[in-house]
Amino acid sequence: MLQPQMEITVDELRHLVSDRAVQGDTMLLNMGPQHPSTHGVLRLLLELDGERIVNCVPDIGFLHTGIEKNMEAKTYEKALVMTDRMDYLNNLGNNLCYCLAIEKLVELDVPPRAQVVRVLLTELQRIASHLVWLGTHALDLAALSVFLYCFREREHIMDIFELCSGARMMTSYFRPGGLWRDLPVGFDEAVRQFLSYFPKRIQEYESLLTDNPLYIDRTKGIGAISSAQALRIGLTGPPLRATGLDFDLRKAQPYSGYEEYEFEVPLASNGDTYDRYIVRMEEMRQSLRIVKQALDRLPKGPVRSNNRKFVPPPRSELGHSMEAVIHHFKLWTEGFPAPAGSVYLPVESPRGLLGCHLEGDGGPKPLRVHFRTPSFANLQAIPILSRGHLVADLVAIISSLDPVLGDVDR
Amino acid sequence: MEAPRKLASELTELLADSLIELQEFRGQLTLVIQPETVLGACQKLQAAGFDLLAALTAVDYWPKQPRYAVAYQLYSLERNEFVGLKVMLADDRVDLPSVEPIYPNANWHEREVFDMFGIRFRGHSDLRRILMPYEWEGHPLRKDYPLGYEEVQFSFNFDEIERRKKYVKD
Amino acid sequence: MGIEQKLGNLGAVTTTLENAVNWSRTRAMWPLLSGLACCAIEMMATQAADYDLSRFGMELMRASPRQSDLLIVAGRVSRKMAPVLRRLYDQMPEPKWVIAMGDCCSCGGVFNNYAIVPGVDEVMPVDVYIAGCPPRPEGLIHGILTLHDKVMGEKSLRVA
Predict the structure, then answer these.
(1) Angle in degrees, CA A228, A233, A238, rounded to 5
(2) Chain B environment of A232 (Cβ under 8 Å)
(3) Which of A6, A76, A136, A226 sits 20 to 30 Å CA-CA off B163?
(4) Three-state secondary structure call for residue A223
(5) 3 state DSSP class of B57
(6) DSSP 3-state assignment of A267?
(7) Backbone phi, psi, residue A227, to 5°
(8) Distance CA A243, CA A276 (A)
(9) Do A367 and B61 touch (CB under 8 A)?
(10) By the 8 A CB rule, do A192 and A107 touch?
């Protein structure tokens, strides 16, 4: 298993590189899986003419985890754990996508309190994801202090997640039917404290980068793409909104109560790296608005559906209700059955359109779970975006697309 | 639910010659079409405004026949509608025309379907494995491919498993 | 370490020299930037301001294996990535140590399927295993301190 063919001759890839490479006119460089700026294990085969990129062939699959096949071997609720680990910067978002797909498939209701908490935590997760993006993007462009500031803020968000669910990253807090358990005491205070100081922090990051001539030089005009081209190559999310096209699933096909919140979708016009930065910074502000509205309107009530055919009963009931014991036993050993049929549920992840294609077959285990992940689709645009740029610009372009390799390879 | 009904009738008319069945499940539309007509159907849908190929995936129904279904999800920005296309393939004829000429982002999606299921796409510019290593044999997401898990190391299979792990120190 | 090896076992002198050598090795261990998946994010968080790794001498992560002594395997190792990791390990000069951070590289973690190598110890010898999915930054720091203890107890100067 350890001696696979790592060297691939030019003959096999001849159709991918231009004729000049075969003649030796241009250089083929391997920007390997282990590289400080590739945001994970992404391998790029670059064809360079001096320092200019003639063509760039991405090679993915170094983090392929077989999540989809593994989920087919587990029941619906137990497979939820795997969704956390796909796009590991947007754990709650992945949970939400999968839970909404299950709820649509089996027609399970979600109480209003759970819907509001879901929106709140998903937006906090979006802020956390954009903070990591900003930190690593700035780190790639050698602005180290922004990296440290962003991770300092992210620690506060991680503390909030730990308050609710016990884990900083892989929370699995959203379950089919609602949430795992109710919000703890002190949640309200923690989130309000976060809301009070975070706007000034966004301003701090902007003051470091937005008008910085070094940053502008490195990002303006780099990796520009038109909206028609972006749509054809399948870009979604902030890269598409940076070209001017208004496509945000939270507004277009609202889920989990998003239609009740007031927020704007930031757009830009040029579609280059600088515009993607502007769009994401503004998205952080809009997410803060949503968090505040969700916190203010948090209703009281149950946090998980009462439908005992799909949701296990609370442990306190097991002492005195035989039906509760039977439901508990059935659900944890066998799982709940889902009807035969397929649903496709798209949500808006911080990277773009995250879609879950869930197909049931009448049994307790899913027949097929497929995640259409935004990073997989967005990475296809790298050859188009980077043609004619320098290698250093390629680093800025990749980090502005915000790929997460767990999302790409699943 | 008015928009799906109008959309359903419009699409039935548009794809009349290739449509086998129109399914509606949980408010979502899926058009089952003939395998060889997928390129023509996508062209017509693109002209009707469905300009984003949102997803391309495959499902293996083994041991039921027809064994594979390739599912496409198309989105129209102006109508704000998702529509699903489904193509059923039997075990003996697992190839399809590629929709890459119409939707260039189908490139990697079709490579993934080829890698995981072995469904070939005719006319694809670069059909090779994308997620598995290049010389891997087999198509992992087929139902007759084993999950490949590691067994728990009890005392009866202790030595067998220990032999595989050369570097484990106590 | 030529002269020390030639001196051989000189009792008190060698042990003190050994202690000094081990101490200096622990105080400036440079990790290789080999973050693969989710654990890499926690590794970055440990590197950042709240849980600071530079107080242990690991201020920067070297990108080149030739310049690093510690390989922190952070994340799941897939079958495609395993030979690459082995190559990185081989390119590192002695003395080198390996920390398997997280469940996926210690034992396969949540995943038990065709695509993940169940434990990076099928590929390279590991010194310290850190449990957690992902381990908390404090967990990673505890693992690094355990490694420091291990290195302090090493007999680095005896001719092996």
Answers:
(1) 75
(2) 51, 103-105
(3) A6
(4) coil
(5) strand
(6) coil
(7) -70, -35
(8) 9
(9) yes
(10) no
Cβ–Cβ below 8 Å for C78 and A64? yes
Joined together, the tokens standing for residue C130 give: 């850190």
pLDDT in tens, A336-367: 888 888 899 999 999 999 999 999 888 888 99
Do B38 and B84 contact (CB within 8 A), yes or no?
no
Please give the average per-residue pLDDT across C69-73, as a whole number. Answer: 88
The pTM for the full model equals 0.90
- Beta strands (DSSP E) in A361-407 are 368-372
Contacts of C83 in chain A (CB under 8 A): 2-4, 6
Mean per-residue pLDDT of chain A: 86
B132·C121 Cβ contact <8 A = no
Which one has a higher pLDDT value, C155 or A17?
A: C155
Task: Note whether A267 and A244 are within 8 A (CB).
Answer: yes
Mean pLDDT lowest for which of A326-340, B71-85, B152-166, C12-26?
B152-166
Q: How many CB atoms lie within 10 A of CB A280?
A: 25
**In chain C, which residues have their Cβ closer than 8 Å to the Cβ of B167?**
121-126
Element (H, E) at B44: helix B38-47
Q: SS3 of A333, please?
A: helix
Specify the pLDDT at position C53: 83
Residues of B with CB under 8 A from a CB of C: 132-133, 140, 145-150, 164-169
Q: Structure tokens of B158? A: 């202790």
CB-based contact A42:A403 (threshold 8 Å)? yes
| Distance between C130 CA and the closest CA of chain A, angstroms | 16
Q: Round to whole Å and give the CA distance between A359 and B161.
A: 36
* Binding partners of B (≥3 Cβ pairs within 8 A): A, C
DSSP A1: -
Task: Please indicate whether, in this complex, the C-beta atoms of A85 and C80 are within 8 angstroms of each other.
Answer: no
Burial of A287: CB neighbours in 10 Å, binned 0-12, 13-18, 19+: buried
Shortest distance, CA C124 to any CA of chain B (angstroms): 6
A65 to C111: CB separation less than 8 angstroms, yes or no: yes
* A52 pLDDT more than 90: no
Contact C84 A67 (CB under 8 A): no
Beta bridge partners of B28: B25
- Whether A405 and A40 have beta carbons less than 8 Å apart is answered as yes
Is A170 in contact with C38 (Cβ distance < 8 A)?
Answer: yes
Query: Do residues A179 and A304 lie in contact, with contact meaning Cβ atoms separated by under 8 Å?
Result: yes
Q: Which of A356, A357, A371, A407 to mutate to test the interface with B (most CBs of B within 10 A)?
A: A357
Q: Does B98 touch chain A (CB under 8 A)?
A: no
Check: CB of residue C117 under 8 Å from CB of residue C82: yes
How far is B53 from B42, CA to CA, in rounded Å? Answer: 10
pLDDT of res. C158:
57
